[in-house]
Amino acid sequence: MDQVGRPSKRRKLGDRNLPAGVDGEEAALYQDLLEMERKLDWVIARKKLDLSDALNKPGKTSRTLRIFLSTQLSNQSWQVAEGDTGPDADFSSISPPAWTMRIEGRLLDPPSRHAARSVKKFTHYLNSLVVELDRDPSFTEGNIIEWHRTAQTLDAEQDGFEIKRMGDSTVKCKIILDIAHSPPRLKVNPDLAAVIGLQEGSLQTIQNMFWNYIRQNGLQEKGDRRKIRPDAALKPLILQTMGQRENFMFHEIPALLKMCLSPADPVVIPYVVRMDSTTVGELKAFDIEIDVDDFAQKMRVREVMAALSPETAQQIQQLDEEISLAVVSVRHSKLKRDFLQSFASDPAHFIERWLSSQARDLKTVMGHESGMRGDLRRSDNFQLPWVEEAVVVHEGIRVSESLAKMMNPTLQAQR
């Protein structure tokens, strides 16, 4: 079978716990560090999930959308020279008086220089814009100008609008802006607003505040937590939406709130187009607070996720392998020490047990297994001292091979 395309198996780390009987101040410190590492790994794994969620759903931040209004005049009476209006003037070459109103907007840069600067245009933050002109309806030009977001306008965002009209008299205007909040904002009726202390907000925010009010005031019945008993502040709201009731169920909260919410009111800006010379070049600004995606937070999350790169994980895995090899070496040294200490404490008995073990191994090698099969069926046979000796030999061979592999690249690098 072709082994080239097969992915390499990840090496399983050995046990990094010190064997029983290895005491001392350093051993206690090592075990404390091991426990701290387990807790740190759990915290890092939890934070990775939080960062992943934050990356998929960026948070919101409040920014200022500034609206600029200005007026440009042309061919007004005070703009035409006296020679052009005398008895011999040719009025056929003079265009009728007109005016142009400009509506522009942009998102103000945040105070922090580290925050991301928005490149979205003005219409990106609007659902619709309506301008109502308060003037004689006999004008052939319309007095209501509308712009609405459609599938076509999404690909053609713009920084502002220009409205051109004929006339030489003052015109009162009303600019109505429907802001494209994300998520959409809803208006709270007075009864519900008196309970949660919020006039306008997103549906999730309103639901959270209503539920917090129920929990903080202990309105859930003790016998059945699904039932909610309204207090004096909630009773007028329940009477208005559900009628006379002593309680309502938890699953009825969305329907209750739906009856108390309506689309948020649009932003209305009054403006007057004046025909005198003082208005030329005058710029008026109006600020609107809106919620936008916090792309600066998203960038910070990306930087943190980049720090947790595969290269870093590979370095950590390599260090874990080195620690595992060191623990295996400690375990091997302890077995060797116990082996020699047993010999030093009672040499005669140790030699007898050692010869018995060697004789058993010799029978196995020579094929005289008739007497061994019964012993192999007993579990207590594997608790005898020969098992520890076999483990010492096996661990010694394995540690020697591992150390040789680690030292070989080092020697080649030195050459």
TrEMBL record:
A Pfam family annotated for this UniProt entry: SWIB
PROSITE patterns: SWIB_MDM2 (PS51925)
Official protein name in the record: SWI/SNF complex protein
Residues annotated as transmembrane: none
Entry-linked SMART domains: SWIB
Domain DM2: 181-263
InterPro entries in UniProt: SWIB_domain (IPR019835), SWIB_MDM2_dom_sf (IPR036885), SWIB_MDM2_domain (IPR003121)
